[in-house]
Amino acid sequence: xxxxxxxxxxxxxxxxxxxxPGDTGRLAVVWHHGTPNLGTPPAPLAAASERLGIRWISxxxxxxxxxxxxxxxxxxDVAADLTAVLDTLGxxxxxxxxxxxxxxxxxxxxxxxxxxxxxxATLAAIAPYVAPGLDWYDxxxxxxxxxxxxxxxxxxxxxxxxxxxxxPEFTETDLAMFGGPWGWLGSVxxxxxxxxxxxxxxxxxxxxxxxWGADPAAITAPTLLVHGTADRIIxxxxxxxxxxxIPSATLDTHENLSHITILNQAERAxxxxxxx
Length: 276
Fold this sequence. Notes:
9 helices; eight-stranded mixed sheet; 32% helix; alpha/beta
């Protein structure tokens, strides 16, 4: 795994990852990490990646890991950062896989990059904040509502919300996941992801409640929206709304799977990307 500091035109540094440097024979798949995680490609998918011939490309979003913070960034801004990474590495097109809020950033990039994105799959993505017909907060856990309502009140309010303890309300089934391969999430989360302070998570939450700056309806690449019906961190209604507004989308819901247990579908989603 190569780790690369990409120096962007605006002076920021974007810390990135490349699992197969220079290997143009592999399918480049961009991993968009969740909140609050590092951008390291998902180790639980390593064996499947080798079998499918995947080259992982990823980066810590601004404010995470070794990437410079960018207060005020929007969902659309990820497209410019991704373009800089792909251009620097000489990659013409890619597929994308995003988990949780990372799915939202994957969709934003797909909406703006057109044919450069060959396919996109998301696991528990967040819909736009202003989404006609969607009760955006309905079904969310109280801690999530508090964080996102604070973000909607402004960045300063979201920073102040960091003082409150976040309770994801994991179930026994969720906790069991951390005893298996997806315990990997613990190695890329929390203080490990934000050694320089909470900018990454704060600015992610603020981006989720700002206008995307990209229209999901503009996505032309085949799109797979995977979501669990028992998800209370990002309710399944978000995926249903996205599926109704992305012409190329396929909705793939799973009864009784949560925000964590939906990761059991990640290998299947990666295979779908390969096939499309």
